[in-house]
Design goal:
Blueprint: H1 2-11, E1 30-39, E2 42-45, E3 50-53, E4 56-57, H2 73-83, E5 89-93, E6 105-111, H3 117-123, E7 128-129, H4 138-150, E8 164-165, E9 177-190, E10 193-198, E11 202-207, E12 226-232, E13 234-236, E14 239-243, E15 250-252
Parallel strand pairs: 3-6, 8-9, 11-14
Antiparallel strand pairs: 1-2, 1-5, 2-3, 4-7, 5-6, 9-10, 9-12, 10-11, 12-15, 13-14
Length: 256
Amino acid sequence: MKTIFVMLILLLSFTAIAGNSVCVPTQYDETVKLKYVNDGDTITLSDDRLVRLIGVDSPEIDHQYPELSEPFANQARQFMQQHLTQGQTLHLAFDRRKLDPHGRTLAYVYTQSGQHLQELLLSNGYAKARVYQNDYFWQCLANIERQARVQKVGLWGHPSYQAKRVDELTRDDRNRWREVRGVVTGFERKGQHLWLIIDNKFYVGIPREESGKFSNILTLNLLESPVIVRGELYYSYKKWQLISYHPSQISLQNKP
């Protein structure tokens, strides 16, 4: 056990995300014109390209059955419409991956005055921070989301967006992306994973080959600390589990 803890200290240390961060690119890659707002995290340009905002996830609108839209989905789109106008000039900054599997352009989007749409959405509670491979600004965006969550701004004040306790998980949560909250009660190295144990019964696996990404995430100081973990849940060997491939899936919360 001592060997495991020494390995953890060397391998994993917690990063405190700086407050009041601003996600500023070194340069803009393209200047474009807005055609219209599709939803909280997607816009259409004057050349008909769809742009998906990197690093954020707004509630989904069900265009076929509007009554089935997720809570705050329409408010997120209306919020964007209030801040953007047709024909407005916008600046795009790209990350490593420029297109998503649906052919949409992936970008950090800024107004001419330098206002960052991703930060605007997160700080007002109209989106969650979420990494989809591109992660240049993930720490900055995660910090902004955390402040909105603590203040219960926007969607964070709605019951649907509260992280679940382990005891609240049901069969309906299997194979779905969920947020789970609890207290770190231990670590375990088994097979090809390092496991973070929540409330003695929920297991978060960090693949050994991905461990370098977590060099600033976990230490023994995390023991007995409240966290929120997020990812696709599965139930195996009578235990709830998720695999964390990116440090954004584990966040330290303020102690009560």
